[in-house]
Structure of UDP-3-O-acylglucosamine N-acyltransferase:
Amino acid sequence: MRFSELLRQLSSADPCCARWLAADPELGGAGALHRAGQGQLSFLEPGNRMVRHLDRCQAAALLLPRNPALQQQVQRRNIAWAALADPRLGFAEALELLCPEPIAQPGIDPAAHIHPSARLGGGVSIAAGASIGAGCRLAEGVVVHPGVVLYDDVTVGADSVLHANAVIHRRSQLGRCCVIGSNTVLGSEGFGFIPTAGGWRKMPQTGCVVLEDGVEVGCNSAIDRPAVGETRIGAGTKIDNLVQIAHGVEVGRGCAFAAQVGVAGGAVIGNGVILAGQVGVNNRTRVGDGVIASSKTGIQTDVEPGQMVSGFPVMPHKAWLRSMAALTGLPRLNRAVRRLERRLEQDTVR
Amino acid sequence: MRFSELLRQLSSADPCCARWLAADPELGGAGALHRAGQGQLSFLEPGNRMVRHLDRCQAAALLLPRNPALQQQVQRRNIAWAALADPRLGFAEALELLCPEPIAQPGIDPAAHIHPSARLGGGVSIAAGASIGAGCRLAEGVVVHPGVVLYDDVTVGADSVLHANAVIHRRSQLGRCCVIGSNTVLGSEGFGFIPTAGGWRKMPQTGCVVLEDGVEVGCNSAIDRPAVGETRIGAGTKIDNLVQIAHGVEVGRGCAFAAQVGVAGGAVIGNGVILAGQVGVNNRTRVGDGVIASSKTGIQTDVEPGQMVSGFPVMPHKAWLRSMAALTGLPRLNRAVRRLERRLEQDTVR
Amino acid sequence: MRFSELLRQLSSADPCCARWLAADPELGGAGALHRAGQGQLSFLEPGNRMVRHLDRCQAAALLLPRNPALQQQVQRRNIAWAALADPRLGFAEALELLCPEPIAQPGIDPAAHIHPSARLGGGVSIAAGASIGAGCRLAEGVVVHPGVVLYDDVTVGADSVLHANAVIHRRSQLGRCCVIGSNTVLGSEGFGFIPTAGGWRKMPQTGCVVLEDGVEVGCNSAIDRPAVGETRIGAGTKIDNLVQIAHGVEVGRGCAFAAQVGVAGGAVIGNGVILAGQVGVNNRTRVGDGVIASSKTGIQTDVEPGQMVSGFPVMPHKAWLRSMAALTGLPRLNRAVRRLERRLEQDTVR
């Protein structure tokens, strides 16, 4: 595809405001700025430190921010470019055009195991070795990869994709356009046990898991069902690999949880919350809308909306930076205090 | 089921000491106190902050603690109630009566792959797509969900349940009434490598994993086998999702490990130990009976029995609370010491 | 096998420098020093605290370090022994002789699902329920256990082993002699989303995952593919269970990552790096050759080669030890400073 043609197909949401077409290169792929080779497209964001690679960039064409100095620098290297308000977004759209994902063929493999009471919408794709339990309902266009297991009475909304070996336990409800990663488990039994004289006694977990539209979950994650009621993930929330969402958690819309996050039972997470890698959220904690927690944060108390937090125990990010700077100086501080004490001791003796 | 009938079926271990039956409601389900609707049962524990929802509770019947004031408050709302020594335990029993789990039908699906040398007890249930290796022995009543893989020579005790896509490696031994969550792996090769001039050299992992009776493991967890001997999990121990138990670990009876706990090779954990989410235990560390570790604790040294510990490095919970309180005050402390130093400097100059 | 015969078969890289053959016992297995029983081999390393069990050791034969005092102590107990430069390495070799792993039988199970366009080398073993996608190429001797799923266009080098229910996404490239643990996922979509007014917008992940020769990955781990280019794991690197390697990460040769490590997108890890359990590495961070990070370290800034680091924020291990020692003394330090302040206050008042 020619660069000029690709630019014409980019979303009207972000029309290119300027462009320079050198020889209007034919594009055969895409790459990172320092890796892109002949015939490849790349991009640069405002303020990105990749800019240091620009003078050796081998790409055929670049999506740039609205920055005339950068544009001239690129032009001098004879690289075609276009300037966008959001070059990363444009690159995402370009990738879909240049490297389209393969589309699963509709159809039901004869080696899939489908209970006769399951109801399948038009155009569903079910691969060999998948198991669909009694009473399941899959809407049109759902894709089920090999080895996926749906227990009974699972519902999956239109155009959702279930990757290989994912397991969805009974009565889970998935909305439209959800993506469930390989080996992820939804709707499994919450970890609820009551201490008794005879040992741990299971609290039956009779609730279910609900994923609203557009939720995506990575690989090897787990979302448990509660004793009663629902564990609910709000529309458009994205969850990475190896994440634990315990029973009865409520997650709002448009959140993003990075890998190895753990959210304990009954926590309530607002809308637009971002949790970085290895963050933990305690039982029944409330995290307000728009909170951002940096990696490894341990949220053991409620966090007000809009805060950026860090550390364990959790604190405002700036306070954490100050505490951590002070922490490394702690041995020195100790010595200073001992010096002061000796000094005053001598004063007293005198 | 009528509330009165349900109360008659609760365990004699905790008979209701008082009750008030309004109109003896017919119960059709159960819910959390603030969510329960018409015809639903709920419960309240002593000291639980859910009590604030009591005045708007819509449940038809409640299991309460032995607290006359609460009972009168509920009665005024015309909600039937019964008072129990342990209302949560009563609710667990009630859930089993009101929302019974479906029981797997005995039988072997023709699409299961079973080695002819495997021995299967009466009433086992083996689903489509499961693989049972050579020499495996499944006792009566074992349930094997779709996609489960048993390598050779695995033994599974009576009435154990293996959820979908779980993998049990060779020579693992599971006791009676164990529950293994979806996508969990037992008996995999321990992470044992020896540094040599030619790179990492594998230490063969020839041991096995043993789960005693009543052990439950959540989803996407892993319990490795050791080079020699056993990795052993004591009877009645419950393990949550995404937990790592390394090779050669010994875990006692009646422990509870929350999600994302990691226990490194050769650690020895006593009986009744509770590890909260994201706790780590170092190689060969010994953790005494009854120890409780709060979330994210890093246990890198032995812990005496009965302690409640926190932090990393691990310390008594109260010491950790004090240290953390002091940590947030550290920048202020730094400034105070600098003030003192300047002050004494001036004194000296004068 | 007789002990003398076993010694003859140990690698010439580490010939035993001395030995004492009592009655040249017949060996039927192996065990840890404090557990080994009659007819079993065990070993002891220099400086290992297992030495305290030596006086009660029941093993039939021991591999010892070059330490005459130890050798005499063992001889007094009438246990046969041999002294090696690296007794652990010798034990590893001995285990392979005494407890050989079963070898997968070559052949393709009729219940495997193999796309007709896949190309299979000689001697491959593909179990029931495995799925091999279009265009996959498996070299000679590859072993595919039950339930493994290969998406399209995956290549697997000779003698690699894919354990049960592992999932390899499209275009992943595995070298020779790789081992992929059960339920591990390779080549899944990286967690790349762009914030827009309409919510998170997916960055297409069109790259692939490359594992060089001899890479081993444990169970329930995930290695994601990037938007463009590769996620690459260097030759001989060993990765434990429940590890997350995000999109675009580069890992060098001969590294070892323990369980529950998480490496965020675009990080660059050198050769021979050791990350202990639950370590996290931030986006785009660079970790130099030979770095060792202790458990739970949070590497949020670049680390120079050869350092031993700890803590979060990351610092040199010795600085961390000092800071942590000071941390537990912090409440006391606080009190000392308050005493000093009061003291100077009184001085001023006087």
Observations:
- The two ends of chain B are 89 Å apart (CA to CA).
- The first helix of chain B runs from residue 3 to 9.
- Chain B has a mean pLDDT of 94.
- Helices of chain B lie at 3-9, 68-76, 87-98, 317-328, 330-349.
